[in-house]
Amino acid sequence: MGVQSxxxxxxxxxxAAEADFESxxxxxxxxxxxxxxxxxxxxxxxxxxxxxxxxxxVESTAGTALYNAVSSNHIDVVRLLLENTPKASLExxxxxxxxxxxxxxxxxxxxxxxxxxxxxxxxxxxDLNHGFSRTPLSRAASRGDLDMVKLxxxxxxxxxxxxxxxxxxxxxxxxxxxVEVARFLLEQNGDIKRTTSDRWNMxxxxxxxxxxxxxxxxxxxxxxxxxxxxxxxxHLAARANKPKTVAALLEHDxxxxxxxxxxxxxxxxxxxxxxxxxxxCKSFSFECVELLLKASxxxxxxxxxxxxxxxxxxxxxxGSEDAQKxxxxxxxxxxxxxxxxxxxxxxxxxxxKIGRRTSVSMVKTLVExxxxxxxxxxxxYTPLAIAIYKGNEVVAKYxxxxxxxVNIFNPRxxxxxHLAxxxxxxxxxxxxxxxxADLEIVDPxxxxxxxxxxxxxxxxxxxxxxxxxxxxxxxxxxxSLGGRFGYPIIRAAHMLGSSDSTGTRxxxxxxxxxxxxxxxxxxxxxxxxxxxxxxxxxxxxxxVAAGANTNxxxxxxxxxxxxxxxxxxxxxxxxxLDKFEDTxxxxxxxxxWTPLLWxxxxxxxxxxxxxxxxxxxxxxxxxxxxxxxxxxxxxxxFSGRNELLEKVVAKELTRIKIDNGIEKWGxxxxxxxVGDLKDAKCWSCFVVSTTNQRNxxxxx
Length: 700
Description:
Blueprint: H1 8-16, H2 33-40, H3 43-51, H4 65-71, H5 75-83, H6 100-107, H7 110-118, H8 136-142, H9 146-154, H10 169-175, H11 179-187, H12 202-205, H13 213-220, H14 233-239, H15 243-251, H16 276-282, H17 286-294, H18 309-316, H19 321-332, H20 360-368, H21 383-389, H22 393-402, E1 409-410, E2 414-415, H23 416-422, H24 426-434, H25 450-454, H26 460-473, H27 488-494, H28 502-512, H29 527-531, H30 538-545, H31 560-565, H32 572-579, H33 595-602, H34 604-612, E3 620-622, E4 629-631, H35 632-638, E5 654-656, E6 662-664, E7 676-681, E8 688-692, E9 697-699
Helix pairs in contact: 1-3, 2-3, 2-4, 3-5, 4-5, 4-6, 5-7, 6-7, 6-8, 8-9, 8-10, 10-11, 14-16, 15-17, 16-17, 16-18, 18-19, 19-20, 21-22, 23-24, 28-30, 33-34, 33-35
């Protein structure tokens, strides 16, 4: 308490009364009195404590008294501790903190550092607690403290000492832009040839210090093209947008090699194979690009990926004004003018490389330079098609307004209009239609109608807007054939099975717009079949209300009841059985599967309802006309649905056949090993496949 009150007289009385002045342990974070007094610069309190026998080297989490006095720049306290008997140790520092001498250097107090040295502090050592400047001299150099650097050298510090684990003072001064210190160390004959473990030399360190580059080149006889792990100094300066350094290098005789390629053994992998000119382009360093072009850098040079400067700027420039300035410079001179129709190894010209972030300004530069805006690449994509595919609406709009053809067709994407529609871009679709696109034409190998494609838009809000626009405003055909499900109404019925409520809204909307409800896909499936597999019965109810035929089998004999029976926890089955009381609950598909077999395979919740409707548990079906026969019980065993087994056992274990013969239930027939769930949905019946690996039977 006496120390904290700065009352050294009171302390003398407390010490005389044998108060504890060593530990500081009364409270968890309380410093020992001597450490506290030294940190606060309380010289008289420190004197009293030392005279009272306090240990000058008592330690704490903050270090010793000497360490704290040095850190806080209290030179009078430091002197007192060093002149005490016993003398405070110069070797103790708290863990993970700068060593004592390093701490002193960082105060900038040359008198304090001189005092420590006079009392035996070592000037050449490595302090592992700091980055790359780990000696006292290099730390002073990193701070640009010329007076401290001079003092350390006067006190015997080795100008080139690194301890093999630190950057030298000269390297540090150059790299940290401490020009005054660097020039002084050069005058003192600091080793200019020293390199770091990652091959950096003094010239590399000066990539951001252009005023030192001529001096180093004159003094050091450097190989101007030597590469460190970050390339040559020209690579470094060009990539970091340091035009003054680039200019200084280009003025040197001999000039650096402008076509020197960034080595493979490097730290920055994404610029391997780049020249300094390509690096400048990648960094959008306009002044560096211009300087290198003036110096005759090869603007046609391509990296390992086949990209030249224009490719790099066009792909990565985005909205950067500097990137646009660099790009325009390549095509407008006054130094060079690139061939805008040149193609790469994949047959693509520059305008085919539009990306999501490519700017209109760059595209405009190409178009105004007479680039062929309707030229197709090897996959049949025009620049407009690529802009739409990449989602770059601004560039797409510019190309359309400039006159790019909107009636381009391709088996990969159908048409330009299909591309825009698939991306959900209503504004682009409107613009393309206004520009004269034909709503009904599509590449025959692609097949999907425009409305069918619109149903696949991922964003539900955009999907609804697009469908309404196509149907209500531009009168797109609502019953055009094409796509996996054949017709828009069938695809919409399939979407009823998703968790997205907009599927039901669109489905009912198409019904109100008089979509043909009885069209069928190539498997004979109609909207009623796919609507029946939905979890909720909104869709099938709407179809029934609109007069759809619910008693139509598909080409495999499957009825809506089959699909409804396969759905776990769905209510379409209840609706169909309740609505159509005369429905044949034992109707068979071409493999003689009844709804009960479909339920036993994939929907235990449907079985009770089917049994109440008098479903026949004796019925057996094959699989794709194979000899293997399946009953509901056998399927329940195969599917691992143990809770269903008792339900699908026949109540009577014998029955009279049509020919008046007697048929026995036969337990062996109904046994089956549990199959392995493949987690792969069948796109015909929409049931997840199950396989028994032992006998290679797959049921789906």
